[in-house]
């Protein structure tokens, strides 16, 4: 597992340099943030851009930087390579009624994912979205540790 700041392209490129010539058959883009302001009138431009940088640009930068590694794995005997983007039901094009920066940036991720999938199909690299469903997250509970994610789903 590799931890880095997807908002900082230099850290993404440095991480890719550390992994030079290492085949990667599974890349999971799971970075996420949740900024203040839920509505069009309460969300700042700065927070909106932060969420777009993390949710839409981050997966693009990381995948692009690690593309040589993914291609290396795709040409190996295993020949089963996946890029997974973590998404949310809040990314619905029909609107989610949720926080504007989060919903729109995750919707942008869907288009980034679709474009990547089309571009990388010829390299035998599958690019998919996963929606884990409603789970407890510290960001949603304002830092309080929940007893069980499953209870919340029920």
Automatic annotation (TrEMBL):
<dbReference type="InterPro" id="IPR051468">
    <property type="entry name" value="Fungal_SecMetab_SDRs"/>
</dbReference>
<protein>
    <submittedName>
        <fullName>C-factor</fullName>
    </submittedName>
</protein>
<dbReference type="Pfam" id="PF00106">
    <property type="entry name" value="adh_short"/>
</dbReference>
<keyword id="KW-0560">Oxidoreductase</keyword>
<dbReference type="GO" id="GO:0005737">
    <property type="term" value="C:cytoplasm"/>
</dbReference>
<dbReference type="InterPro" id="IPR002347">
    <property type="entry name" value="SDR_fam"/>
</dbReference>
<dbReference type="GO" id="GO:0016491">
    <property type="term" value="F:oxidoreductase activity"/>
</dbReference>
<dbReference type="InterPro" id="IPR036291">
    <property type="entry name" value="NAD(P)-bd_dom_sf"/>
</dbReference>
<keyword id="KW-0521">NADP</keyword>
């Amino acid at each position: 597992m590799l931890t880095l700041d997807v908002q900082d392209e230099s850290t993404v490129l440095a991480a890719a340099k550390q992994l030079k010539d290492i085949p990667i058959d599974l890349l999971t883009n799971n970075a996420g943030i949740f900024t203040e302001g839920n509505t069009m009138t309460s969300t700042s431009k700065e927070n909106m851009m932060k969420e777009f940088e993390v949710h839409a640009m981050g997966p693009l930068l990381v995948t692009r930087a690690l593309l040589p590694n993914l291609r290396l794995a795709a040409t190996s005997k295993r020949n089963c390579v996946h890029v997974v983007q973590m998404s949310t039901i809040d990314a619905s094009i029909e609107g989610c009624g949720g926080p504007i920066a989060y919903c729109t940036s995750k919707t942008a991720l869907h288009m980034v994912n679709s474009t990547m999938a089309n571009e990388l199909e010829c390299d035998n690299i599958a690019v998919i979205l996963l929606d884990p469903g409603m789970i407890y997250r510290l960001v949603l509970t304002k830092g309080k540790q929940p007893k069980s994610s499953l209870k919340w789903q029920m």
